[in-house]
Amino acid sequence: MRILLVEDDLTVRAFVLKGLREAGHVVDEADNGKDGLFLAVSEKYDIVILDRMLPGGIDGLRILETLRGQQNPTPVLILSALADVDERVAGLKAGGDDYMTKPFAFSELLARVEALGRRGRAEAAPQTRLSVADLEMDLLSRTVKRGNEKIDLQPREFRLLEFLLRHAGQVVTRTMLLERVWDYHFDPQTNVIDVHVSRLRQKVDKPFDTHLIHTIRNAGYILRAD
């Protein structure tokens, strides 16, 4: 599973990271609330493990409330030193799916994470279509159309549009595109993104009255129907 771990305590974070990765999971990490919130709302995870008390001006409950406010159903396991009954109830009422207190046994944490993952897979219906306004992508047939017009895309263009559709209404950065569309984990210092976005616009936007792909200056791109 792909897991997001938001934990400011370096020792706890390293301990959990090591154990989860040894168990075969892919784990992203954040050590403060601001970065944790950004990752939680901009990326797709199977599970989020979330500390309550975080630096950065955003605590765990605010991250959780933001996710649920966006109708994001990702299972969240709260991992916190706040052990009172009232604190546990507050975490669960805010949208948490499980609550563990520190100190904890990693074997129990792993069992709870995997149980949440099984529950999430059982509840999630496979997504086969993505759409914004009159733009629609069929993931099974690998086809794209806008209105009644079919749009032919090259494989990389299809992957780029799929990523934009999955993050519709959200700003996607160049770094996110390099990592998720090109599988680069470094900046190649080329205009490869600009070239492909331009080509995609020629096919998806230019022939139509309403443009869907927008540039956000000094930030990235966003797919939305204005």
UniProtKB/TrEMBL annotation:
SMART domains: REC, Trans_reg_C. PROSITE patterns: OMPR_PHOB, RESPONSE_REGULATORY. It comes from Gluconobacter wancherniae NBRC 103581. The lineage of its organism: Bacteria, Pseudomonadati, Pseudomonadota, Alphaproteobacteria, Acetobacterales. The modification 4-aspartylphosphate is found at D51. PANTHER family: REGULATOR OF RPOS, TWO-COMPONENT RESPONSE REGULATOR. InterPro entries: CheY-like_superfamily, OmpR/PhoB-type_DNA-bd, Sig_transdc_resp-reg_receiver, WalR-like, WH-like_DNA-bd_sf. Residues 127-225 bind DNA. Gene3D superfamilies: 3.40.50.2300, 6.10.250.690, Winged helix-like DNA-binding domain superfamily/Winged helix DNA-binding domain (1.10.10.10). GO terms for cellular component: cytosol; protein-DNA complex. The keyword Nucleotide-binding does not apply. This is DNA-binding response regulator. Residues 127-225 form the OmpR/PhoB-type domain. The keyword DNA-binding applies. Residues 2-117 form the Response regulatory domain. One of its GO terms (biological process) is regulation of DNA-templated transcription. Keywords: DNA-binding, Phosphoprotein, Transcription, Transcription regulation, Two-component regulatory system. Coiled coil: none annotated. GO terms for molecular function: phosphorelay response regulator activity; transcription cis-regulatory region binding.
